[in-house]
Amino acid sequence: MRTLDLYILRRVFWPMSAALAIAVFVLLLERLVRLLDLFVNKGGPLSLIVRMLTNLIPHYLGIALPASFFVAVLLAMMRLSQTSEVRAIQTAGVGLWRLVAPIMALAVVLTLCSAATINYLQPYARYAYRSLTFALTNTAWNAAVESGAFFTGFAGTTVLVDGFGDDGATVNGIFAYRREPSGQTIVITAERGTLHSTGDELRLFLRLYNGVRTQTGPDKTASHVVRFDRFDLPLDLAFGAGAFHERGKDEEELTLSELWAARGNPPDGMSVARIEAEISYRLVRILTILMLPFLAVPLGIASRRERNSLAIGVGLIALVLYHYVLQLGLSFAGTGRVPPIIGLWLPFAGFTLGGLWTFVAASRRPEGNPLSDILSWLDTALRLAVRRGGWQRGTG
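-> structure tokens emitted (396 positions)
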């Protein structure tokens, strides 16, 4: 049995390692393009970008690890099924539950690795990444914008401020002037403002409070005046490093133990609903890895040589849909619209029960499990669609 276990583990481990490395590389490459664009256009030390990419690895590992494991198990079972090894193993008296034992042992190890990555590495790495992006997009804020002096480095917008707060990101007494290419002018005055970064944290905007926006046409005769309580003014310049906030600004920067301790007394800017939703979301993502073999094994056994790509496509679509359902559940649970048990644990329960049901059916009828029937129906439907499309083109 030990020889069989090692054989199955080799079938899973090496494809999983290759898929994981490729997935993380592709994800990092996409982010590298954006960071290099920022580096070339606005300057910054290249070593800082390398550190930023390094801090993104835990985040992308959390995304790529379940998918890589699922695909590896699926490919391994496809190969064992197509070479009739599964049938030979079962003829020797080894059931599907015993066959999947080494895969489940690997799933337990990956679950522990995922728990360490999601609950501890990701919060610290996310905070480090945000601090580095803040440093990269804030290199000269205090030096460039001086109190009581006009600054024209905002790509056509002139800014005058009365003073700065102690944190370097708060300004008081703001005057902003911009002349558009069409000839119209925009003047904004506000009592105070705070510096923020955009969603990708690579650009800045100034959030203004209690001010007036005046827009005058090219002929200087018509003006439009608007009073506002809050207004976001984009800043098209990478500024310099001020003081960055301490770790724990939001729930994504806290470890699981810190989130659990914060439930009774949420920090500023958080709510009990958001904290509980984040806790449930992390636990569900970790436990999902244990359930993946119960879907991948019967799906791999159900596939035939002519419909391998169909089985892989069905499996990946199921994973993507499950991922987006969890994202939607996190969004609703974070706002308090639904409890986490409905938004997150119910989809997990459905995914688990569906996987166990198909696995039990496959253990009884390996080549006639429900997934085999689904693949047969999809294969027939696709063939009919292709034939109909070819017939219509031929008659046209």
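DSSP finds eleven helices and five strands in the chain.
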